[in-house]
Design goal:
This protein is mainly α. The protein folds into 2 domains: 8-102, Orthogonal Bundle (DNA polymerase, domain 1), CATH 1.10.150; 118-277, hpI Integrase, Chain A (Orthogonal Bundle), CATH 1.10.443. It is 52% helix and 4% strand. A 3-stranded antiparallel beta sheet has the order 1-2-3. Helix 1 (8-16) runs antiparallel to helix 2, helix 11 runs antiparallel to helix 12 (240-247) and helix 11 (222-237) packs across helix 13.
């Protein structure tokens, strides 16, 4: 007996099984948009134009919210979510082909992102409330991605090592040094940094962009702080590989040369941290040879 083909609404939960938490939340958002338009249709009734339309819609909404410069990343994520949905349906035996794979993702524009200047960083600190400055300092010290911040919990602190564990892209966990002052802040029973949510963070950047014209012009977001610190690490240490390790990037970005490159240790990342932010760190010894030295 042939199984009944599920509707789009019915197929979505299956598509989200096995995904990392951050990917699951991202895909769920765009698949809910798909369900708003086509939830009652059978999964095998959707065609290429339906996916194309969803991508354009997602891009338009993102651009209106100014969550991205022109919404292209939202369009890309919508198409990726649909590809996941149809791939799962194929694996479950309901489809023979994936119509979303015939939809081209938008080309990625060259990044306009540069490091924020000291004056710009100071502007942002002045624009936020007192209880929000700890968040900004954490973003600068760790160069974390948004999911690293939102996934932070007290059990991910290593006070003796003065490091935190960041659970980020692809559920990759990296150990990142912080200052002693930041560690003391994170250990406070009422530390507000654990209360941040995706929506609250988006609201913060929107509020700052309304107050600071230059921030609105560049669509200031969490990633600007990450890029600022990583750029400063590369400038101060003159080591792109050390900056990549600090950022938690895969060394495959260095192409064939990556075969011969070993990532730096946490102690060496801590050394880079002291070069950018000053002070000392328990993982950095007085006789430690600088990376590349």
């Amino acid at each position: 007996m042939r199984r009944r083909t599920p509707t789009v609404e019915e197929a979505i939960p299956r598509a989200l099984v096995g995904l990392a938490p951050n990917s699951r939340d991202l895909y769920a958002y765009y698949l809910r948009l798909l369900a708003q338009r086509h939830g009652n249709r059978k999964i095998d009734q959707l065609v290429v134009s339906d996916i194309t339309e969803l991508g354009v819609w997602a891009q338009t909404m993102a651009a209106r919210r100014r969550s991205t410069a022109n919404g292209t990343s939202a369009r890309e994520h919508a198409i990726a979510a649909c590809r996941r949905l149809f791939d799962t349906a194929i694996a479950d035996g309901y489809l023979q082909h994936n119509p979303a794979k015939a939809v081209r993702k938008p080309p990625r524009a060259d990044s306009r992102r540069t490091a924020l200047t000291d004056d710009q960083v100071a502007d942002v600190f002045r624009a936020v409330r007192d209880e929000e400055t700890g968040l900004l300092r954490f973003l600068l010290e760790t160069a974390c991605r948004r999911e690293g911040l939102l996934g932070l919990t007290p059990d991910k602190l290593h006070p003796a090592r003065q490091t935190v564990l960041l659970d980020e892209k692809g559920s990759r966990i990296r150990e990142q040094p912080v200052s002693q002052l930041m560690m003391e802040y994170l250990q406070q029973p009422t530390c507000p940094i654990y209360q941040w949510t995706r929506r609250r963070l988006d609201s913060l950047w929107l509020r700052i962009r309304r107050e600071l014209p230059w921030a609105d012009e560049i669509s200031l977001s969490t990633h600007w702080f990450r890029h600022t610190t990583i750029t400063n690490v590369e400038r101060v240490t003159r080591s792109p590989v050390l900056a990549a390790t600090f950022a938690g990037h895969r060394l495959s970005k260095f192409g064939a040369t990556a075969t011969y490159i070993a990532p730096y240790s946490v102690a060496e990342v801590a050394w880079a941290f002291t070069q950018v932010f000053g002070g000392t760190h328990p993982l950095v010894t007085s006789d430690q040879i600088p990376p590349g030295g």
